[in-house]
What does this fold into?
Amino acid sequence: MMLLSACGQTTFVSPAALTRSVMFHTEDLKLTAKKLPSPVKRLALTKAAKAQTESNPLSMAVASALPQASPQLHPQLHSPTAAVRASLNTQLNGINYYPQQNPWNRFWTHYDAAAVTRDLSQVRQLGFNSVRIFVFYELFGGPDLKSEQMAYLQNFLNQAQSQGLKVVVTLFDQYQQYAPEHDRAAEAHLNHLYAAVGNHQALLAWDLKNESDLDYPANGTETVKNWVSRMASHLHKLDSQHPITASYADAAQMGSETESLDYLTFHYYGPEANFASTAASIKQRFGDKPAVLGEFGFHTWSDRPGDGHPPAHQYNYLNAILAGAAKAGLQGTIAWNLHDYPELSDVPVIRNQPVNRYLGLFDLQGQAKSGVLALNQPVRIIDADTQSAVSPDSRRLELVYASQHPGALDLKFQRQGQAERSLSFRSHTGLNSQTFSVNAAEIKDLLELRLQAVVSAPELEQAQTLILRRD
It folds into this structure.
C-alpha cells in the first residue's frame, strides 16, 4: 500500500516494508443487488452515457461494467484521449480488496474461495461496481507463472463476474527489477498473464505498478519512469481492449511517462482541505486526461500514539473526499479498503505499520464502521470554505450532488418535524454544487441534532436527512 495519516501530515511508508493494493467506484448508479435500474431506465442510462464515453477509453471500459441494453464493443486504446468529464453514471466505484484473514501475500498463498464469495457479495451490496486486486510478480512465478496461483486468480475473476463486478488487476507488486536487462523476464510475465486472463469478461483494466514513485529513491527516478513506459508499450501491443494505468502515491510525481498510459491513478491520504488543490494540480498538468483516485481512506486506530482517530470521523473524511472527487471531475474513486485486519506477524505491512490494520470499512467483528454511511450519500454536505467536514466554525455550507434532469432541490431546517427555515435550489443535469450560509446558533443546533437538515427532490425516493458530521 503506501503511507498513512489523514488528519495531520501524510506519512509515506518505506516501499521496502510494504506490499501494495487497490479498486473502482460509481456514485449514483447504485449497482446494488437489491436496487438495479428498471429495464426502461437502464436503457435511458445507457444512451445518456454513450455520448460521454465514446471518446474516453476508460469510460468505455467502465461502461461495460454497468447494466447494458446490448453488448458494447471495446475501443482501440492508447489513442489520444478526448476531453471528457464523465457523468457520475459512468464513474468507477471501487474498493481495494484483500480477505480479512489473508491480506497481501497471504491472499494467494492461503486462498479461501468461500471468503471471496462472501466478500464479493458484500462488495456488490454496498454499491461498488468493481474491485482492485494485486498480482505479486515473484509469488506468481515471475516469467513462468505458477499454476496454483493462476488457478486462484481465475477463480477470483470468475466469482467477480458472477457478482457483476469488474476487476482492476494491479501488476508487478513488490517488483524492483527496473533495469532494461530484466525486461525480457517481465515481458514474458505479461505475455503469459495476458494469455491466461486477458480476455476474461471480469477484467476492467490493468494497473502496471502500485506506487512506483515510492521506488524512485532505491532505483532512480528516470529508471523507474522509463520502465513504466516500456512495460506500458509492451502491454498495449498485447491488449488493445483494456485501458492501462499505473498508480502513484504522490500525484506530484507523475511525469511524461504517463503519456504511455490510458488514464492516471493517484492515491491520497492527506487532509481533506488539501485534496482540492491536489486534484486541481492534476487537471492543470494533464488537462482532461481521465484520472482516478485509486486509494483513499481513514484509519480508526483511536489509541495510535500521536495520531489517534475517533472511529466516527471516518465518515467525515470519506464524505469530504468523495465530494471533492466529484467536484474535481475525476473518473471515479477506489476506496481503501473493505476490512480491518488481525495482527499478522508474517505480513510486513501490518507488522511494521500497525495502522494499516485499521483502514477498513468493517471491523474485525464484521461490524460496519462509520465510513460505510459515506459511500452512497445522494447529497453530500461539507464546509464550503475548508472543503472539509462541517464543524462548529462552519458558516458556509455546500451541497454536492448529481442530477439526471433539471429541477429543484429543497432544503429545510426542521425542529421536531416543524420547518424553521426553507431554501430551494435550481438543479441542472450533471453535478451540482450549492452553497448557503448558516449562523452560529443554527450550526450548533444542527451539530447537536436539535435541528435536522432535510433535503427533497423529485429524483430522491424520499426526503433525506443530511449527516453533517459524525462524532
Observations:
- The two ends are 28 Å apart (CA to CA).
- The chain has a mean pLDDT of 84.
